[in-house]
Amino acid sequence: TTSSEARISTTHAIIERNDALFWKNKEKFTVAVLGAAGGIGQTLSLLLKQSPRIKALRLYDIAPITPGVAVDLSHINTESEVTGYAGPDQLRDALVGCDLVIIPAGIPRKPGMTRDDLFKINAGIVRDLTVGVAKYCPNAILNIISNPVNSTVPIAVEVLKKYNAFDPRKVLGVTKLDVVRAETFVYGLRKDELQRLRKSISDVTVPVIGGHAGETIIPLLSQMTPKLSKPFEGSELQNLTTRIQNAGTEVVDAKAGAGSATLSMALAAENMATSCLKGLAGESNVIECAYVSSNVIPELPFFASKVKLGVNGVEKVLGLGAMTLFEEQMVKNAIPELRASIEKGVAFAQSS
Ligand code: NAD
Ligand code: LMR
C-alpha cells in the first residue's frame, strides 16, 4: 500500500503541476467578487486566489475592510494580482475589464426566515451592482449568489435589458451548492456500494434543477451517476429529497442567528467560477447546473438545469432528460412559486 500510495501522490503532484503549467500559457482572466468582505466573499476570494486561471482578482464591498482583505490575500504566493475596492465610488474601477463577476453581496437569513424575506434588501443591492456591470463590463459573465436567487437573477436580467447589455448566455444564478449537497448526502447513504465499485465521492454526480428555494430545489436522483443497484425510492427518496431542499435551513438553524452557509457556498461558487473560466478558455464538455434564461419549461422564462459552458457563457441549455413520475410532479409543483418569484423580480426592476 505504501508504495502505491506514494505512486498515487506523485501522479497527483504531476497532474497539479501540469495543470499549473498548462494554464501559464493559456489566456487568463480578470474576476471580480462583489460582496467580497462577507462570509462567502472572503472565503471565495481565498479559493479564487489559488486559481491558475485568474490573472487579476478584484475585491469589491461597501465594507471599509475590503482593501485590507485584498492586501492580506495579496501576500499569498500565487500569480494573480489582488486589488480591493470599497464603496460605490470605486465600483467602476473594480469592474472595468472583468471577464467574470461573482455577486455574493447581500444579507443572509436568520432562523425562521425564508429566502424571499431577503428580497426587500437584496433586490436593490443586486439591481445597483448589475447597473455597474451593465455600464463598466457589459460583456462579463455574471454569477449571482445573492438570495432570493429565483428573483435576483430576473432582476439582473431586467437591468441589463434596460442598458441594452443583456445576453442570455451570460447571466447565471448559482445553484451549485444544491448539487454539492445532493452529491454529499447521496454518498453518505450509498457509501458501501460506491466503495465496492471503487468509486469515490468525487465520482458521484446528481443534477439539481428548478430553482434555489424550498420545493423549487429539485434533485433528479434517478439520473445520478454512477448507476447503483438499489435506486432511491419510497420514504428514503422522500427523506433525501427533503433534506436536500432544506439543507440551507439546516445550516441557518445550526448557526442560530449568525448567518447561513458560507464555507460550503464559497467552495460551490469557486467550482462554478472555475467551470465558467474553463468554458471561456475553450475547454470542451464543461457542464454545470445553473438557474438561467431558458425555455425548457415553456411557461417559465428562468429555470435551473444542466448547461454546457463555452466561450460566451451558456453555450447550450440541456434538456431535463428522463424523469420519474415523482420528479415530474416536483417540477409541476415548483412552477407557481417560480413564476411568482420571477414576476416579483421583474416588477421590482421595471418599477425602479
Ligand atoms: P454576509 O453578511 O457575511 O456578507 C455579505 C456582504 O455583502 C457584506 O460584506 C456586505 O458588506 C456586502 N454588501 C452589502 N451590500 C452591498 C453592496 N451594495 N455592495 C457590495 N457589497 C455589499 O453574507 P453571506 O453569508 O456572505 O451571504 C451573502 C448572500 O449570499 C446572502 O444573500 C445569502 O442568502 C446568499 N447565499 C446564497 C447561496 C446560494 O446557494 N446561492 C448560498 C449561501 C448564501
Ligand atoms: C443556502 O442554500 O444555504 C443559501 O441559499 C442560504 C440560505 O438562506 O439557506
UniProtKB/TrEMBL annotation:
Cite the Lactate/malate dehydrogenase C-terminal domain residue spans from the record. Answer: 175-348
* EC number, as in UniProt: 1.1.1.37
Q: According to its record, what are the GO cellular component terms?
A: cytoplasm
| Molecular-function annotations in GO | L-malate dehydrogenase (NAD+) activity
Which residue windows are coiled coil?
Answer: none
Catalytic activity from the UniProt record = (S)-malate + NAD(+) = oxaloacetate + NADH + H(+)
Q: Which intervals hold domain Lactate/malate dehydrogenase N-terminal?
A: 31-173
| SUPFAM superfamilies, per database record | LDH C-terminal domain-like, NAD(P)-binding Rossmann-fold domains
- One Pfam entry name: Ldh_1_C
Kindly state the subunit structure of this protein: Homodimer.
NCBIfam families xrefs: MDH_euk_gproteo
According to UniProt, the name of this protein is malate dehydrogenase
What species is given as this protein's source? Bathycoccus prasinos
Please spell out the taxonomic lineage of the organism that makes this protein. Eukaryota, Viridiplantae, Chlorophyta, Mamiellophyceae, Mamiellales
